[in-house]
Amino acid sequence: MSGFVGVVVSDQNLQSQFTQVELRGLHSSFVSARNESGKITLGNLPPVMCKLKALKDILTEDDISRILNESSSDMTEEIDFESFLRAYLDLQGRATAKLGNTKLKGSSSFLKARTTTIRHNISESEKASYVAHINSFLREDKFLKDYLPIDPSTNALFDLAKDGVLLCKLINVAVPGTIDERAINTKKVLNPWERNENHTLCLNSAKAIGCTVVNIGTQDLVEARPHLVVGLISQIIKIQLLADLNLKKTPQLVELVEDSKDVEELIGLAPEKVLLKWMNFHLKKAGYKKTVNNFSSDLKDGEAYAHLLNTLAPEHGTTTTLDTKDPTERANLIIQQAEKLDCKRYVTPQDIVEGSANLNLAFVAQIFQHRNGLSVDTKKISFAEMMEDDAETSREERCFRLWINSLGIDTYINNLFDNVRTGWVLLEVLDKIAPGSVNWKQATKPPIKMPFRKVENCNQVIRIGKELNFSLVNVAGNDIVQGNKKLILAFLWQLMRFTMLQLLKNLRFHSQGKEITDADILNWANRKVKSAGRKSQMESFKDKSLSNGMFFLELLSAVEPRVVNWSVVTKGETDEDKKLNATYIISVARKLGCSIFLLPEDIIEVNSKMILTLTASIMYWSLQHKADTPDTIPEEDNENAASDESPAAPTDEYPAVVADGYNASS
Q1: Which of 317, 559, 563, 640 has its CA 20 to 30 A from that of 593?
Q2: Does the N-terminal peptide bond of residue 447 adopt cis geometry, omega within 30 degrees of 0?
Q3: Tell me: the pLDDT tens digits for 98-109?
Q4: How far is the C-alpha of 205 from the C-alpha of 118, rounded, in Å?
Q5: Higher pLDDT, residue 341 or 117
Q6: What one-character-per-residue DSSP string does 253-271 give?
Q7: Nearest C-alpha neighbor of 617 from the set 573, 565, 559
Q8: Beta-carbon neighbour count of residue 188 at 10 Å?
């Protein structure tokens, strides 16, 4: 099972919306639509589409014909498989809307980290709120200040988003330092190439902070399609607003729980769930009898807000708010009271009364930021700090979590170690990268009450891993269920590495089935740099000389000469200069088109696993776009490379996994 080749779609964002099982089924339907001349036209699709499971008994053949006619007046137009998939997604959205199901996957862009092409309507109230956020946080930006403030009543937001600068800057507001601004093209007038580079940098950086952009491409942003732009902006703002809702940033949150078991549960909660827990904690103290379970219907009457604000800010407390019977007037009083805490940016009285989940979430998060009302219990805080991972484990957890979320599986990961323990997430990932490997009839979907079902899921994970030639010596599913962090990281590293090597193998049509090894990647990189007339070489992925960043800058320049601005590159002699180069390398690679999740520290400290992923990502981009000839990817072994016998063999960073974990030397 080491050579899975599924249905490949050139648009990775489009492909990531489907499992391979779905793609194979849809491809069969697509092929069946061929007419007598062997072509597939729009007119051939309705009788095939109306039989598909998601559309059957909802949209008739006539409905589908009418919808397709809306997008093209020529039904004899020949289409390809990607156009078929896009048409299917659009029809799926229409079918769901016809059923009245507004809880469509991805429709709540703020509460679910999803951006899809299915939701086409945008809330003007949300748009106005996000514009106010942008005006506030970016008003002093040297480049954007000439374009701000944006008028929310116009399309100025979308016009400004077309060049990509605004979205890149907004990502840096949400997670400072994500994008090296030296990599952003900030001329007043950008050419199409520069504009595309900015949007590529934006999308890859958005994934690297936790946004899910499974079917949004650079062209969507160039065209500034409103629902996609607003959806992406809402995700970025959500990440900023919820950034402190974890024990690492706010250890005082430990006050919300009673014992160590509850602390573990708190660590595994999504940030919005922590926010609800915090709100209910204070409401209970205030004597409020109800439990707030959501940011929409439970907040419409304003009572919870009134109790919360009176508890958090007794100096501004009043009984008038609760005495008021009119919901709109009460909401207005709530906002007036919150303004005294400088919380006035996200909601209007109408937003509260109508139960806008996105904006209520933003409002509650803002209240938390300004007045969380938590005490400083040093004993509890010390206990919470003891449960934090070391720096390297934390960085690797972040990398694998973001990588999994970028795959477009149904489950969104908030805490890697907690979320994989049922085995379900790992099965979803395996189904994505090794189509057909998972026996879903033998899998149990969460929530799982019976512990042995979790073990069954994880046993299947281990079985598939062994079939993929992962090194899993004396490992059982129960090790994952128990949350063995070293083992989980070791398994995920082999999983990520397998994925990278398979992608490279699938692009090497001349390889005749020969597996790609670490040595191939290292040799390709060295030869690429040498062919560009540069002198840098990499002895191995642990080569300490890589810490100054010069080799990767030369490699990036070799695959695309115009992508590196050498005038901003340092010599990398001091720690500060190394940090500058490392940050620039990551942004330039993302700007080129590499989907990577490492941090500058991984380059500076020469984390060999992350160095391998960076090199492989650059190689993958180069093979995709430059059609390297066979002799640029040498077949001979490099005595300094980490050569493997199989695509998933252990490296010296992650040697054979044993029952009690792995002995990582890095």
Answers
A1: 640
A2: yes
A3: 665 433 333 333
A4: 23
A5: 341
A6: GGGG-SSHHHHHHHHHS-H
A7: 559
A8: 7
